[in-house]
Design a protein that fits this description.
This protein has about 900 residues and is α/β, with parallel strands linked by helices. The strands form three sheets. The chain has an eight-stranded mixed sheet with strand order 9-8-7-10-11-13-12-14, with helices on both faces. A four-stranded antiparallel sheet has the order 3-4-5-6. A hairpin with a 3-residue loop joins strand 5 (about 530-535) and strand 6 (about 535-540). The radius of gyration is 30 Å and the shape is elongated.
C-alpha cells in the first residue's frame, strides 16, 4: 500500500508515497528466506500494482473529505498533508526496524494490507467526532488561526496515524521478500516501484474521472478498502503457496550475522561506484521534498490557463504519476547496465535541473502566453488538450527526477544493516522530506517567490545536489563531474520569467499577489478596475459596482431587523459594504484567499462603503464553510457569494450539508441568500442546486440583482415556513437602498427584483439528484456541461434561456396568486410583472428588435406610467 501519490489543494492530491514505494536496500546481510521464483515475483508485482491503485484512491478520498471539514484554505491543506507524511515516516522507521524479525515477510505484508483496510474504517467515526466538536475547539482557541492550523495538523495525524503507519511500513517489509542478492533487489525493486507508481496513476484516473462522480465518496471508499483487503488476502495465499509450510510469520531468534569478510571483498571500491551514507539520506529527504514541491508548483501554473475543475487537476496528477512510473522503468533499465552509479545520478539530476527550468518556457509557449486552453471545444477535446499539455510540460522533467530515487537501489553503499531496517530509514527521511514540502510551498515559497521563482529554486536545488554529490567524490578528476550540474545551474539562472497575467489591449496591471491559494491580480482598463483570480476568474470590478451593491441590499431589504449579517465570500468587498447602510450591528465577511482581502482594501475602498475601517465589521481569511462549522454565532442574514460552479472545491458550497449548516446558524426569522451566476450555469446544473436548496428551506423565492440578459445573477432566498413579504418592512428598508428619506411617501417597487416562488418549478425539480457531500454532482457535472455550452452543444441560462425561466416562474404562480406576496398591496405586486417586461424590453433593445421592443415598452407604460422615464436611464443593462 506504499503508493506514490501527490494530493494537492483544493481537489488536493499529494505525493503520498511515490518516493516511498521502493527505497534502496543497502545491507551486508539478508534474512535467510527462500528467494521467490519469477512466477511469484510477477504475481507479487501485480499485487503491488493494485496496492498503488487502492492506496491512491484511499488517499484521494481522505483529502477530498478532509477538505470539507478542515476547509480548503492553503494552510489547512498543508497541515493535513504534513500529518499524512508524518504517519508514513513513522511507519517506515518502525516496520523497517521490525522487519528483520519476520520469518515470512510476505505474510506480514498481507496482514498489513488487511490492517490498512480495517483501520481505514476508523476514519469515518473519527471524522464525525471532529465535525461534532470542531466549534468547541474554535471557541477554546478563540479563533487563533495559527493554533487552529496546528489543531488541524494534530487531528489529521491522529485520524490517519494507524493506516498511514501501516502504509509506510509495507515496502520495508516487502524488501525482506524480494531476494538475497544486492543486484536482484535492485532489479526487482525498480520494477516493483514502476508498477506501483503506474498503479497509482490508474487509481488517480478512476477516482477523478469515474468513481467519485458516478458512485460518490462512500462507495468509492468502500471499493478502495475492499481492494486493499483483497490484496492482503492474496498476499497471504501467495506466501502459503510459495513456502508450502506453516512456520510462524515472526521469528524469536536473533537476525542472521552480517556478511563475511570475503563477501565484503566483492564490493566495488571505485570512488564513483556509490554515494556516501550521508548523501543517501540527503537525497532520500530532498527527493520527497523537491518532487512534491515541483508538482504543487505545476498545479498552480496550470491553474492560470485551465477550467480548474476536479478533472483538470486529476489529469495533471495522472500524467505526473505516469511520468514517475516511467522514471522507475528507466531506473530499472539503468540498474541492469554496467554503469558507475554517481555519473548516472549526476546526469539525471543535471538534466532534471535543465528540464524543470525549461518547463516554464515550454508552458508559456504551449499556451501562447497563458491563453485559456481549449475554451470552445467539446468535452473530450478539452480533456485531451489538458492531458496533452501536461505530457508536454510535466512528463520530461518528471521522468528524469522520478528515476533518481529508485536508482539509489544501485547507488547505495554497502551497510551493515538488515534490508528492511535500512529501507525503513530511507522511508523515514523521504517521508519527512515529503512532509516538509507542503509546509515549504504552502507557507513560504509561493508567497515569497511566486510560481516562476519557486520553480527556478526547485530546479536549481536539483542542480545544487548534483554539484555537491560530484564534489563528494574522492577523485582527482572530480572537476569533470561538476561540468554538467554547473551548466544546468547557469541555464536556470539565465532563464527569464514570462508575464504571469495575460493582458488584453488597453489593460494595465496595477498589482499582483501570489500564494498557494492562487494568483490575485488587479487590472485597469478605461474607467474599470477589475480583480481576477488565476488570470481568468473575475472576482468583481468597479463597472459592476451597482450590481454588487444590490447583491448586498436585496437580502437585507427583506429582513425586518438585520442586525447581524454574514457574507460567505468577500471579493471586492462592495457587496458586504452595502450592508452597512442597513442599521446593522455586526458584519462578518469571510474570504478564502487572503490576498483578495489586501487587494480589495487597497483598490476598492472607495466603493466598499467603509467596510475596511468600520468597527462593526470583522473580515476573516478562512474557508466559508469551515467558518460556519466552527462558529456558534447566529445571524439574521447569511449571504453566499457567486461561486463558479465548475471550480474545484466550490461544489461543496452548493451541497445539502452546507445549506443545512447555514440554516442552523440563522436566528429565528433569519434568511439565507445564495447568489447564483446564471451565465455560468446550464439548466441541468441550476436544477440540481435549486432542488438541493429547496430540500432544506421551507420557503424559497428567487430574486435578481440586475436586468442583464447575458450575465444575470439571481439569488435563492431561503426562509422559514410561511414567510411573507411585509409591506411595512419593505417601506422602511428601502431607505437604506435608495438613500431617500422621502421613500415612505412613494412606492418601494421591490417587486422589480422579485422573480418568483420556487414552487413554480416543483414539477421540473421533482426527481432531480441532490448535491451532497457524499456525491457532489455539481463539482463533476458542471465542468462537463459548461464546456459543452462553450462548444455550442449546450446552453447557459442567458438570453432566451433566461427569459424562458422567468416566464415559467411568472406563469405557474402569478404575482397575484403568490402567497409570499399576499401581504403587499396590488400596486406593489404589479411591479413583478413590470420587472419581467423591463427585462424583455432590454433584451429586445439590445438585439436590435425595435418594433417588438416598442410594443413591450408600451405595455410597461400601461402597467406603471412614468416608470421608464424615471428608471431607464439610471438602470440600463448591467
Amino acid at each position: 500500500m506504499d503508493s506514490p501519490l501527490f494530493i494537492s489543494k483544493l481537489y488536493t492530491l499529494s505525493n503520498i508515497n511515490l518516493n516511498l514505494t521502493l527505497v534502496p536496500t543497502h545491507t551486508k546481510q539478508f534474512l535467510i528466506i527462500k528467494s521467490p521464483g519469477s512466477k511469484h515475483v510477477l504475481i507479487l508485482a501485480g499485487l503491488f500494482f493494485l496496492s498503488g491503485t487502492a492506496g491512491l484512491i484511499l488517499q484521494v478520498v481522505w483529502m477530498y473529505r478532509l477538505g470539507l471539514v478542515f476547509g480548503n484554505a492553503a494552510y489547512a491543506t498543508a497541515a493535513t498533508l504534513a500529518a499524512f507524511f508524518l504517519g508514513l515516516a513513522i511507519g517506515g522507521w518502525f516496520w523497517g526496524n521490525a522487519a528483520s524479525r519476520f520469518r515470512r515477510p510476505l505474510t506480514v505484508y498481507g496482514l498489513m494490507e488487511i490492517g490498512v483496510a480495517l483501520t481505514a474504517l476508523l476514519w469515518i467515526p473519527g471524522l464525525d467526532f471532529y465535525e461534532t466538536h470542531y466549534a468547541s475547539v474554535v471557541a477554546i482557541l478563540d479563533g487563533h488561526s495559527g493554533m487552529l492550523t496546528l489543531s488541524k495538523f494534530v487531528f489529521s495525524t491522529t485520524l490517519l496515524l494507524i493506516p498511514t503507519v501501516l502504509m509506510g511500513g509495507t515496502f520495508p517489509v516487502l524488501v525482506q521478500y524480494v531476494g538475497k542478492s544486492r543486484r536482484k533487489l535492485a532489479v526487482q525493486g525498480t520494477f516493483l516501484y514502476a508498477l506501483n507508481t503506474i498503479g497509482a496513476s490508474l487509481g488517480a484516473f478512476f477516482a477523478g474521472f469515474f468513481l467519485l462522480s458516478n458512485y460518490g465518496v462512500s462507495s468509492t471508499y468502500a471499493f478502495a478498502v475492499g481492494l486493499a483487503a483483497c490484496i492482503g488476502v492474496a498476499a497471504l495465499v501467495l506466501d502459503r503457496l510459495s513456502s508450502g509450510d506453516s512456520k510462524p510469520a515472526f521469528r524469536n531468534n536473533p537476525p542472521p550475522k552480517p556478511f563475511t569478510k570475503n563477501e565484503k571483498a566483492t564490493v566495488s571500491v571505485h570512488p564513483a561506484s556509490t554515494v556516501t551514507y550521508s548523501w543517501m539520506l540527503i537525497l532520500a529527504f530532498m527527493s520527497g521534498l523537491l518532487a512534491l514541491s515541483a508538482e504543487t508548483i505545476w498545479i498552480r501554473m496550470f491553474s492560470q490557463v485551465l477550467q480548474n475543475s476536479v478533472y483538470s487537476f486529476s489529469a495533471i496528477l495522472v500524467v505526473f504519476l505516469i511520468a514517475l512510473g516511467l522514471g522507475g522503468l528507466l531506473a530499472h533499465i539503468l540498474v541492469r547496465l554496467s554503469l558507475r552509479p554517481i555519473p548516472v545520478l549526476l546526469v539525471l539530476l543535471s538534466l532534471g535541473t535543465i528540464l524543470l527550468g525549461l518547463s516554464i518556457a515550454i508552458f508559456n509557449t504551449a499556451t501562447n502566453g497563458l491563453s485559456y486552453v481549449a475554451s470552445s471545444v467539446s468535452w473530450p477535446q478539452y480533456v485531451w488538450a489538458v492531458f496533452k499539455l501536461a505530457f508536454i510540460v510535466v512528463m520530461p522533467p518528471t521522468l528524469l527526477i522520478g528515476a533518481v530515487f529508485p536508482y539509489l537501489l544501485k547507488a547505495a553503499p554497502q551497510l551493515n544493516r538488515e534490508p528492511g531496517r535500512f529501507v525503513g530509514l530511507l522511508v523515514l527521511f523521504n517521508a519527512l522530506g515529503s512532509a516538509a514540502g507542503p509546509i515549504l510551498i504552502g507557507f513560504f515559497l509561493l508567497d515569497i517567490l511566486g510560481i516562476w521563482g519557486s520553480m527556478k529554486i526547485v530546479a536549481a536545488t536539483y542542480g545544487g545536489l548534483a554539484l555537491l554529490v560530484a564534489a563528494s567524490v574522492r577523485d582527482t578528476k572530480n572537476m569533470r563531474w561538476m561540468a554538467l550540474p554547473v551548466a544546468g545551474l547557469i541555464f536556470v539562472a539565465a532563464l527569464s520569467a514570462p508575464p504571469l497575467v495575460r493582458l488584453e489591449k488597453g489593460e494595465r496591471l496595477l498589482d499582483i499577489w501570489q500564494s498557494t491559494d492562487g494568483v490575485v491580480s488587479v487590472v485597469k482598463s478605461d474607467n474599470n478596475i477589475q480583480m481576477r483570480l488565476d488570470n481568468f476568474y473575475v472576482l468583481g470590478d468597479t463597472r459592476s459596482a451597482l450590481v454588487e451593491q444590490m447583491q448586498g441590499h436585496i437580502p437585507l431589504l427583506l429582513h425586518p431587523m438585520p442586525k447581524h449579517t454574514l457574507f460567505l465570500g468577500m471579493g471586492t468587498g462592495i457587496t458586504a459594504g452595502a450592508s452597512l447602510n442597513h442599521n446593522v450591528k455586526r458584519v462578518v465577511a469571510v474570504e478564502l484567499v487572503s490576498n483578495v482581502i489586501e487587494g480589495a482594501e487597497r483598490y476598492y475602498a472607495p466603493w466598499a462603503n467603509g467596510l475596511f475601517h468600520d468597527p462593526r465589521v470583522e473580515i476573516i481569511a478562512d474557508d466559508g464553510r469551515n467558518y460556519l462549522l466552527g462558529t456558534n454565532e447566529k445571524f439574521d442574514v447569511i449571504v453566499g457569494d457567486l461561486f463558479t460552479p465548475w471550480h474545484s472545491g466550490t461544489g461543496s458550497l452548493y451541497t445539502l450539508e452546507h445549506f443545512q449548516r447555514a440554516k442552523k446558524q440563522l436566528k429565528p426569522g433569519g434568511l439565507f441568500a445564495q447568489w447564483l451566476p446564471l451565465y455560468q450555469l446550464t439548466p441541468e446544473s441550476f436544477k440540481i442546486i435549486a432542488a438541493t436548496f429547496d430540500s432544506v428551506f421551507s420557503e424559497v423565492t428567487l430574486w435578481r440583482a440586475d436586468f442583464s440578459g447575458s450575465r444575470a445573477s439571481i439569488a435563492l432566498v431561503g426562509q422559514q415556513k410561511g414567510a411573507q413579504l411585509d409591506q411595512e418592512v419593505l417601506q422602511k428598508n428601502i431607505v437604506n437602498v435608495v438613500g431617500s428619506k422621502d421613500s415612505a411617501k412613494v412606492e418601494h417597487m421591490a417587486g422589480l427584483f422579485y422573480l418568483g416562488n420556487l414552487n413554480a418549478l416543483k414539477e421540473q425539480l421533482t426527481g432531480t439528484e441532490l448535491n451532497t457531500d457524499d456525491k457532489r454532482s455539481i463539482e463533476f457535472t458542471a465542468p462537463v456541461l459548461s464546456q459543452k455550452a462553450n462548444a455550442g452543444s449546450a446552453t447557459f441560462i442567458a438570453g432566451k434561456e433566461l427569459e424562458q425561466l422567468l416566464t415559467t416562474l411568472a406563469d405557474k404562480i402569478p404575482a397575484n396568486q403568490d402567497p409570499y406576496l399576499s401581504g403587499l398591496p396590488a400596486n406593489e405586486r404589479q411591479y413583478v410583472e413590470v420587472g419581467l417586461q423591463y427585462y424583455r424590453y432590454l433584451l429586445l433593445e439590445n438585439a436590435g428588435e425595435r418594433i417588438k421592443a416598442d410594443s413591450v415598452r408600451q405595455l410597461i407604460q400601461n402597467l406603471a406610467p412614468g416608470f421608464l422615464g424615471d428608471t431607464l436611464k439610471s438602470t440600463g443593462d448591467y
